Amino acid sequence: MAVCYGNAATLLNKQPVTDKSIHWPFFQLVAHALELSLKAALSHQGRDEEWLMMIGHSLERCYTQAISGGLYTDRDPATDALMGSLDEPHALQVFRYPQNSRWVAPDPHWTIQTMETHLEIVRRFLAVQTGADRSQVWRGTGKTSAPPRSSGSLPAFRIE
Predict the structure, then answer these.
(1) ∠90-143-43 over CA atoms, to 5°?
(2) CB distance 159 to 125 below 8 Å
(3) Which domain holds residue 96?
(4) What is the tens place of the pLDDT at every residue in 17-28?
(5) Band of the pLDDT at 65, cuts 50, 70, 90?
(6) Cβ proximity of 36 and 59 under 8 Å
């Protein structure tokens, strides 16, 4: 499911930049893809369903736990920045329900690149954990290699 949400965000990102109405749904899709991918990794690290539900929607908590369980061999500054940027609005469900927010969104193209890098890292991790060929994990994505790592800077723009 994580890849499905990621693919939907990628398709939505191809809409004209002037269409501001898609920004909130776009970031909801990205954040949900990240959450599901992290929880898949955590599940393979031995976390049960009750624990996964109790950790809630905090991307930073899930990310930190997944890292401590061996998901990343090296921290990626771009992924760190993306998780940090999306953590609060995702956990508070700002993307789903109208709220006043002063959140400054990261650049959508940078967001997609960083999300895809993360999803590939999780895909590889799950392949190792399950003993499956990497292409068998999250079938139907058409992706078997990681996109280039992105820089750790967080390009931003304001959503109104």
Answers:
(1) 50
(2) no
(3) 2-158
(4) 666 778 889 999
(5) very high
(6) no
Q: Is 17 exposed, middle or buried (0-12, 13-18, 19+ CB in 10 A)?
A: exposed
Place of tokens 């058409």: 142
Report, in angstroms and rounded to the nearest whole number, the Rg of the chain calculated over CA atoms. Answer: 15
Report which of 142, 148, 157 is spatially closest to residue 114, judged by C-alpha positions. Answer: 148
Q: How far apart are CA 95 and CA 111, in angstroms?
A: 15
DSSP string, the chain: -HHHHHHHHHHHHTS-TT-GGGHHHHHHHHHHHHHHHHHHHHHHTT--HHHHHHTTT-HHHHHHHHHHTTS-SS--HHHHHHHHHHHHHHHTTTTTS------EEEPHHHHHHHHHHHHHHHHHHHHHHHT--GGGTTTTS---SPPPPPPS---EEE--
Q: Is 144 exposed, middle or buried (0-12, 13-18, 19+ CB in 10 A)?
A: middle
Tokens 């990626």 sit on residue = 76
Other C-beta atoms closer than 10 Å to the C-beta of 29 total 23
The mean pLDDT value for 46-65 works out to 93
Question: How many CB atoms sit inside 10 A of residue 113's CB?
Answer: 18
Domain count, the chain: 1
How many C-beta neighbours within 10 Å does residue 68 have? 10
